[in-house]
């Protein structure tokens, strides 16, 4: 399922993305920092759900929402706003919004919306024994230098066959799934382990270098690992300057 998140605040965008990923890890999330970028994304993608921040620059919210609706490429729109008044509710009704979220976003309210797009709780993804084995290997060995070829050799199948089966069942290519898994763990370590440097986190999550982690992290979140760590409230509350500033620790 494709979901579009539109917000001009990178930190809010990332926080919303993390909230959704924690509930719906297999959804494909697309982000846009303004209305024009959102509209451009609809030219090549269909979205079952879009979260539209009401304080967008450049184009009014009604125009952006109207264009998203007219494109026929967005099924449902949820308005996200910091203002709770009748005018906002009226605007949401006027554009045919599926729902309205008031910031700061409550996890419970967001989950209520997300639950409408989830299969019944007793329905879980069912993978073949082959793909189940591969996923287990990735979750246990993500810190190692892994490739489709060596994993295929481990499970005794042809790499091309494994590539096709993995994409068909999981919905992501092997390499993209592994990158997403490593990035998720890197995000957790940035906050939960303020004693680790960015280079150490890169090493522990299987990235070839700190620079490679930083490049992929920025592409995925719009923030560098250091910015992500500094902007997180949990990190700001730490009393260890090394954790937040990533300065070397003297021995």
From TrEMBL:
Coiled coil: none annotated. Gene3D superfamilies: 3.40.50.2300, Homeodomain-like. GO terms for molecular function: DNA-binding transcription factor activity; sequence-specific DNA binding. It holds the Pfam family HTH_18. Residues 2-118 form the Response regulatory domain. Residues 232-251 are annotated as: Disordered. SMART domains: HTH_ARAC (SM00342), REC (SM00448). The keyword Transcription applies. GO terms for biological process: phosphorelay signal transduction system. It comes from Thermosinus carboxydivorans Nor1. This is Two component transcriptional regulator, AraC family. Keywords: DNA-binding, Transcription, Transcription regulation. Residues 132-231 form the HTH araC/xylS-type domain. It comes from the Bacteria.
